[in-house]
TrEMBL record:
Biological classification of the source: Bacteria, Pseudomonadati, Planctomycetota, Planctomycetia, Pirellulales
Start-end of Basic and acidic residues biased regions: 323-336
Family matches, as NCBIfam families: Xnuc_lig_assoc (TIGR04122)
Protein name: mRNA 3-end processing factor
Ranges for region Disordered: 318-349
InterPro entries, per database record: MBL, RibonucZ/Hydroxyglut_hydro, Xnuc_lig_assoc
Acidic residues: bias regions: 337-349
Gene3D superfamilies xref list: Ribonuclease Z/Hydroxyacylglutathione hydrolase-like
């Protein structure tokens, strides 16, 4: 199995096919699970990814990069290795990478979540010999409510704030999280406004065919525009900046898996915290491992040691690996992780 996939300083490497899966640095050939910038590294020469991620990847990468996109479920042979992409449920175009060589099957989940999401295709279990799973929220304290519950909470906060003469400002990462939040908003409550980085992501989603409610880009409006009763979807880095002054009296909220931890809302200096994550929670991670039923599990991106130890104690061959540098992983947690900051200054969440 080691000959098919190796954990290296540059990322997960397939020596047989001579390519990296979600490399940590610029490489010649990158197989990419999704368009967040800690998985799709800028500067690679050739990118292979799932077709639904095309607009997002082209939006973020250098113009002279070579791209190849494949529909979910189709296979291409790279250096003798059969490579295919399968829905991961994390965001638009997110994929698990399936590698097969001489009867051995490896699956790299990238970032993923279980359950339905109107903005992307749902995760699918893939039987394999080796499963590489993330563990961003790999502790029992992290358990998510269904989307309809959290969307209902957010819309209720919006109604109450509108009736109190306030403007709502809801923070979520520009690409992925914000579009999922938008899909759950009730436009009958008021006008939905967007930060520029969020609107840029909306454009890519809409071009791919994802339906989102009508939004108004804040930058297109006069400085004297009255935002009372509206909902502004913005990136976390906008919190506490002069940009907020234009909205008048506001109520602020963060949508994040980290809101499950006591004190997170206070540290973020927001009025409300909604527990919304695009990663697997604790029970979903365990369900994913059971469903794929691998011989071996590699645990990465998060609480690797804790998850590996739990799996070992329950009869699984599991190993904690570090496919990102410590500074990157720490930065993920501090920024509400899905990933590292993007080039437009937005925080992943």
């Amino acid at each position: 199995m080691v000959s098919l996939l190796q954990s290296t300083q540059r990322g997960l490497y397939c020596p047989v096919g001579d390519f990296y899966v979600d490399p940590r640095v610029a490489v010649n050939r990158a197989v990419v699970t999704h368009a967040h910038t800690d998985h799709a590294r800028w500067g690679c020469r050739h990118y292979l990814a799932a077709s639904p991620s095309e607009h997002l990847l082209r939006m973020r990468m250098n113009d002279d990069a070579e791209f190849e996109f494949m529909p979910y479920g189709e296979s291409v042979t790279v250096g003798g290795v059969d490579v295919s992409f399968h829905p991961a449920g994390h965001m638009l175009g997110s994929a698990q990478v399936r590698l097969e060589y001489r009867g051995e099957v490896v699956v790299v989940t990238g970032d993923y979540k279980l359950g339905a999401d109107p903005t992307c295709e749902s995760w699918q279990p893939i039987p394999c010999h080796l499963l590489v799973t993330e563990s961003t929220f790999g502790l029992p304290v992290y358990r998510w409510e269904p989307d309809e519950v959290t969307s209902g909470q957010i819309n209720q906060w919006w109604r109450e704030s509108r009736d109190a003469g306030l403007c709502c400002v809801l923070y979520g990462y520009a690409v992925g999280k914000s579009q999922r939040l938008l899909a759950g908003l009730d436009p009958s409550i008021g006008t939905i406004y967007t930060h520029g980085a969020v609107e840029k992501g909306n454009e890519a989603y809409r071009r791919t065919g994802v339906k989102l409610p009508e939004t108004v880009f804040v930058g297109d409006l006069d400085r004297k525009h009255n935002f009372t009763g509206g909902m502004v979807v913005a990136v976390p880095s906008a919190n506490g900046t002069p940009w907020l002054r234009r909205f008048g009296k506001v109520s602020t909220a963060m949508a994040s898996g980290w809101m499950a931890v006591r004190g997170a809302r206070r540290r973020r200096a927001v009025d409300r915290g909604f527990i919304v994550s695009d990663h697997v929670d604790w029970p979903s991670l365990l369900e994913a491992v059971r469903s794929c039923d691998p011989d071996t599990v590699w645990v990465t991106h998060g609480y690797t040691a804790a998850v590996a130890r739990y799996l070992q104690e329950n009869g699984r061959d599991a190993v904690a690996i570090d496919s990102r540098s410590r500074s990157e992983s720490d930065e993920d947690r501090s920024q509400d992780s899905d990933d590292a900051p993007s080039e437009d200054g937005a925080d992943d969440s």
